[in-house]
Amino acid sequence: MSIPSQRLQAIDALRGLVILIMMVDHVRETFYLHHQVPDPMLISGTDESLFFSRILAHLCAPVFVVLTGLSAYLYQAKNNSIAMTRMFLLKRGLFLIFLELIVINFAWTGQFPPDVIYLQVIWAIGLSMVVLAGLIGFSQPLLWVISLSIIFGHNLLDQVSFQHLPIVQNIWFILHERGWIELGEHIRFRTSYPLLPWIGVITLGYCIGYTVFNSAQDIAKRNKILMGFGLSSICLFFILRTMNVYGDQAWSMMPTSLETIMSFMNLTKYPPSLLFILWNVGLGLILLVFIQKVENKNWIKPLIIFGSVPMFFYIVHLYVLKALYLLAIEVFGKTHGEYFGVDHVSSLWLISIMLSILLYPLMLKFSDFKHRNKHIRILKYL
């Protein structure tokens, strides 16, 4: 089967774009803790600029996960081996879980051993890869059924609880409900990213890869199919959201038009609702089509560089943010109650832009090092 070489640049560029958007959200979680937002957000108590910055950041995890599934198929097609792909997914998935538990948790908490171990997005991606490793031998029709059944059906499980069965409840916290898992007196886990919906999304990415890249189709044909998937997802989102019956919490008419729009777009991320997935995966696929059209432009190169070293950037930027926060506390003290923080959302964007510029040379050097040292296996995971 023929896999066009250009596809990697577009995928890296899209991954780079959402990485930079993700950094804005992580800057918010570092320097705007005095204005924390619940999930979903409270319309009446959330500034519009903060609301839409947070909504934009919702794009990141779904795009990461769907591209992970898509890239898994491309790896399989390149090597023409399900066994090699299964082993790659298993090793990389376990490596990501290790990073989440040890390296990334320390970046967030600054504690070792930590009081709480947060099971967040890298954990969810890693464990989803492990699950996908066990699924890729199934037929494509069955994989489509598994993926779509999870994505469209998991909200039916929202009211399920196993509170009287502690062991089962802990498993349920990992699969579908945010919660606290306590092992003894000193070990506590917070399941920030329940796994089940992400299994549906990563499998969807793999199925899209098979459908779009499994033959020598020209770029125009591939883009037409991808655009069809993306637009269909967006249209279905608007239909279901307008019906206001299933797929997320209900929206309502608010005192102003802007607040009504905010209510309409106020989607649930933890775990990702059906409507959250439809909107963000659909938008991600549309962006992938547009990026493929401009992937050879010079101005897109920085996005490709950032996207070619996603885990390296993820770890570095978290430690840089932690260091900057500790420095700010040392220099300025606590400016908002228990926290140091900035006063405006615009400051979050300014900090993010400055950090992107400052970190780019390091990412460029590491990307070049990674490209020149492909024999170092661990670099494939960064």
From TrEMBL:
Keyword Transmembrane helix: yes
TM stretches of this protein: 12-31, 51-75, 87-108, 120-144, 195-213, 225-246, 273-291, 303-328, 348-367
Keywords, comma-separated and alphabetical: Membrane, Transmembrane, Transmembrane helix
Acyltransferase found in the keyword field: no
InterPro entries for this protein: HGSNAT_cat
Residue ranges constituting the Heparan-alpha-glucosaminide N-acetyltransferase catalytic domain according to the UniProt record: 7-218
Protein name according to UniProt: DUF1624 domain-containing protein
Organism: Acinetobacter albensis
